[in-house]
Design brief:
Structural class: alpha/beta
Order of helices and strands: EHEHEHEHEHEEEEHHHEE
Helix content: 40-55%
Distance between the termini: 26 Å
Largest sheet: 5 strands, parallel
Radius of gyration: 20 Å
Number of helices: 8
Shape: elongated
Length: 229
Amino acid sequence: MRVLLVEDEEFLAEMIAEGLRRDAVAVDVAHDGREALDKLRFGAYDVLVLDRDLPVLHGDDVCRHVVRQRLLTRILMLTAAGDVRDRVAGLGLGADDYLTKPFAYDELLARVLALGRRAQPALPPVLERAGLVLDTARRQVSRDGRYLALSRKEFAVLEALLRAEGAVVSGEDLIEQVWEEDTSYRTNAVRVTLSKLRAKLGHPQVIETVPGAGYRLGAETLGTDGAAR
């Protein structure tokens, strides 16, 4: 899941972003409405956590933009105003949910995850290819019955490759899906994570590097008709 957090209080924004990343949610941060629109223009987000009272461009205008552009992004609006009329107004703009400051982090996380599930069609909870079994609900991976201890990044990279069903996934796509925007060493991180993942998966190798294109599950993981096994 990928989240855009728009909050002008930098300390609060960093605290929320740090918490979401600990809970395996990729987060980009913007501190004003104009910056939020720039990120929305170039990035696909499942959930927009949007402070209503923003500088430069008001949060209401950002919300209107998302609705007008018919983006699939779900909106969780944050505000210090707890009046019923304010909540009704926010939802009337097109927000999917509303949370009043101050709030408990656990509640914010629960609402973000719930909105994320609504942002896209339900995906199969268990992915299987050539002896690989990835259980997204239990966050477990096994190969030929042998359970593997993967880091969050390794798990997310393997999930992306399994969902691609043999298609090439570029390094940029992996960065988009797995790494948050402000990771300065992203390109090298992809290579390092793939190297560790390959070592844990063991032999025969199932992840191929396609020069100049990206990565994919090797031909041995697919049937002769191209169907996943």
